[in-house]
Amino acid sequence: MIKEILGSNARRYPERTAIVYKDKRYTFEELDNRTNRLANALIDLGLKKGDWIAIVADDCIEHIEIFWAGAKTGIITTGLNPSLSEKDYLHHIGNGKASAVVCSNKYRDKIDSQRSKFENLKNYILLDDQIKDYRNYEELIFSYPSKKPNVQIDDNDLLYFANTSGTTGLSKQVMHTYKSIFSTTIMDLDAMNYDMRAGGVNLVAGPLFWGYMIPRVSVLCYHMGCTLVLPENLSPQILLQSIEEGKVTNMVTGTAFLQQIMEYKEIDKYDISSLRQIFIFGYFPPEIWQKAIKIFGNIFVLAYGSSEFGIISFLPPEDFIFEGPQKKVNRVRSCGREALCVKARVIDDNGEDVVPGELGEVIAKGDDMMKGYWNAPEATAGTIKDGYIYTGDMGTVDEDGYIYLAGRKKDTITTDGKTILPLEVEEIILLHPKVNEVTVIGIPDERLGEAVKAVVIAEQEDITSDEIIELCKDNLPDFAVPGSVDFVDRFPKTASGRVQRFKLREQYI
């Protein structure tokens, strides 16, 4: 199904704009022809179904083209974070046994430094220059015919490697199939109430290497015959400018990027009235959601998922309620109810479903789940059990099936025999007007087992640890109050902006 989408749109909407990046734009007919040419070039270079290509470049149209060329040939693709270290590149490209790498000249030195260690890597392709030992990307495209390649594809064939965020160590490569990607598309559309209509314009307000953003947004967008807009960068100014100039109707983003847009002082100068829906991942407390709705309108669909599982649950606009019965008001703190054709559960340590209000681990199964981790059977076996993905996320569920997340299982703190969820403490500390960010961790303590420590990034320098501790004493049980507070300038974070708690803990052990 996926491999036919571009060709179908080229026949139905040949002159409709398929993709926009800076001053470059291609129609569906042009994009279909270019990806056919690239697909034929890759086959002639010796790549076949089941081989895979790594892409190392800033966000650009070529990311999308390479994915679709792969989709037409059964060649797996993956977009890597360009800011990865050379060690990370060796892990992903070398140990992952990629057959080809496509990179921009900006990041070529990182690839070249590891060449002798890439045993399986036979093809090096450069996007923006002509250099010895590299094939030029555009030259490759125009050296081959635009005839559609004839490759038989099965729904269970691998299509894309998503990369985990690396919050607990080296990132893992998540294997997604044609079936899991297309299932994610249908489930996302259901969550959006099919509001991505033909002729719409979809903006990606997040890095393309994030999770499996490349297939997720482009298959979704092109399945509905829409235009895909890639911003020049992810600054609030550029994102707002892209919305206004492109008359964007739908935006896919994360809460971190949306918050930056909301805090941009000149936001009122931009016309964002074309937006009819924002599909968003992440967490906001209710007061931030109220601010977001005041700016953009009640057009949010909050999705909960992961690199391993496309969409587990979602919260639609009608559940963003701030006044009325407490039962309904509470829902804005949740990540909604299970998505179409997904079975989501919250279980205790014995594998039994928790009763409403009791804490447990979120597990889920559905057609949009991963096949496993590439080259990591032990990690796969530890995550997929009895057909379910064990997310590692702690949470609870109410009588109506709304799931409330409470943090990562690995991040829980056990102090004097009692379990503390960092998120509950962090929410209280964030109420302090001088706090920008906070991360709560457990550090070794001879008497308690673990002691609670709050690490804070402050907005103003005159804040004290006593203020933070007093705020917690007023709002938390005694055992959850931090024993110490540290102030820092920054947190160690993944490329997608998630705090690497394990690195933060290491600084205090």
Instruction: Give average pLDDT, whole number.
Output: 91
- The strands making up the biggest β-sheet line up spatially as 2-1-11-10-12-13-14-15-16
* Largest sheet composition: 9 strands, mixed
Q: Number of DSSP helices?
A: 16
Radius of gyration: 23 Å
Helix content class: 25-40%
Count the beta strands. 27
Outline:
The chain is of the alpha/beta class.
Which tags fit this structure?
alpha/beta, globular, 509 residues, five-stranded parallel sheet, nine-stranded mixed sheet
What would you note in describing this structure?
The structure is a single chain. With 509 residues, this protein is of the alpha/beta class. The protein is 29% helix and 26% strand. The chain has 16 helices and 27 strands. The strands form six sheets. A nine-stranded mixed sheet has the order 2-1-11-10-12-13-14-15-16, sandwiched between helices. The chain has a five-stranded parallel sheet with strand order 4-3-5-6-7, sandwiched between helices. Strands 17, 18, 20, 21 and 22 form a five-stranded antiparallel sheet that branches. Helix 5 (108-112) links the parallel strand 5 (100-103) and strand 6. Helix 1 runs antiparallel to helix 2 (28-44) and helix 7 crosses helix 8.
